[in-house]
Amino acid sequence: MKVIAVEPGAGDPVIEERPRPDPGPGEVLVRTLRVGVDGTDHEVVAGVHGEPPAGRTSMVLGHEAVGVVEDANGTDLAEGAVVVPTVRRPAAEATSHFERGEADMAPEGTYVERGIVGADGFMAEYFTSAPEYLVEIPEELASLGFLVEPISITEKAIEHAYAARSAFEWAPESALVLGNGSLGLLTLAMLETVYDYDRTYCLGRRDRPDPSIDLVESLGSTYVDSRETPVPEIPAVHEPADLIYEATGYARHAFEAIDALAPNGVAALLGVPDDWSFDVEGGRLHRELVLSNKALVGSVNSNRRHFETAVGTLAELPETFVDALVTGVFDLEDAERAFADDDTTIKTAVEFADT
Ligand code: NAP
Ligand code: BGC
Ligand code: ZN
């Protein structure tokens, strides 16, 4: 079978031939339909996040997959069921986090992430998985199933952000998304259409015309250019935000978000920046967090429950938004186009089999 493999930090992903995997006991064989590409995949390709399985220099890429059960192998899953795999697997023995279905809260070192850290991903014509890591989705969502994983990332982050505000009557009205990449835009659409925020803002650093700015405005949201309005100035120019969702990976934003929050607000941090040292006004920001009851919540990965919620969210997103978000779905022969990193590309996927 064909796979898309990468040697992190050593060049572009390439198509390779690998033996089709046999499902082990209790595992199913899945025929891959589509696999999405996100900022993390670009970070894996560049060698700045993740690593291949121990003892290897290359790995199969891809963690945003949708496929069809080809061989149920005696499990309860039906052949033909459309499924989306979760990303984390135990590094060795399943720990209590996995046993509780909370792999997303497992400490580093106790898990691998398929296509990212220590395990092959899903950019292969077939993959195997235990059914507990496969979430069934309706057949009519098969062509967009690669969006379930990134949506689940935001379901988790929002759940944790709201949990941090659950001890009092919190009635958020305004939300600010930092980042106009695929994760930021998906989240903006969720906050506008599913979470029903009155006013939303999305930060980027692009000149018009730009498809991501068009998308922000088509959602009824306000585009904020970080070159004109740095994050700490957003409250003065627009308004302070009750909820902030950081999806730039720009490390200063984690701290600048404190100034952009409204009193009692919460910022969810999603970006995975490189090491970077810089000065912050630590005393003032610490005081601001305390005296204004503000919260910062880091969030990574997502568990099966978030995937299940994400399926419903995907069905609710406006078709016009999704059509504009997904700028390309490419056959294997054209797969390099799915990894383009230019201003016309928002969300892409590689197609392994017809949906
Ligand atoms: P992406 O496509 O690279 O999006 C990042 C966006 O942020 C880009 O559009 C970039 O603009 C913009 N940006 C960066 N610095 C900026 C600045 N200073 N001012 C304004 N805009 C800025 O990546 P993604 O897939 O959307 O993911 C976003 C981040 O979340 C990445 O760091 C990724 O690693 C992380 N992530 C985390 C999780 C998790 O579980 N925590 C899950 C998925 C992704 P330009 O394109 O114009 O440069
Ligand atoms: C993936 C998550 C993963 C995170 C950190 C994200 O792009 O969607 O599943 O936990 O990267 O590796
Ligand atoms: Zn991802």
Structure, explained:
The radius of gyration is 20 Å and the shape is globular. The chain has helices spanning 39-46, 96-99, 148-163, 182-193, 211-218, 234-237, 252-260, 282-291, 304-316, 319-325, and strands at residues 2-6, 14-17, 28-37, 59-60, 64-71, 82-85, 88-90, 111-114, 118-119, 126-129, 134-136, 174-178, 199-204, 222-225, 241-246, 261-269, 295-298, 326-331, 347-351. With 355 residues, it is of the alpha/beta class. Helix 3 (148-163) crosses helix 9 (304-316). 43% of the residues are buried. The chain is built from ten helices and 19 strands. The strands form four sheets. Strands 3, 5, 6, 10, 11, 18 and 19 form a seven-stranded mixed sheet that branches. Bound molecules: NADP nicotinamide-adenine-dinucleotide phosphate (NAP), beta-D-glucopyranose and zinc ion. Zinc ion is lined by residues 38, 40, 63-64, 150.
- What is the structural class? alpha/beta
Shape: globular
Q: Which cofactor or ligand species appear?
A: NADP nicotinamide-adenine-dinucleotide phosphate, beta-D-glucopyranose, zinc ion
Main beta sheet? 7 strands, mixed
- Tell me the fraction of residues in β-strands, as a range: 25-35%
- The helix-strand sequence is EEEHEEEEHEEEEHEHEHEHEHEHEHHEE
The low-pLDDT segments are: none
**Rg on CA atoms, Å:** 20 Å
Helix-residue proportion? 25-40%
* Span of the ends, CA to CA: 18 Å
Number of strands: 19
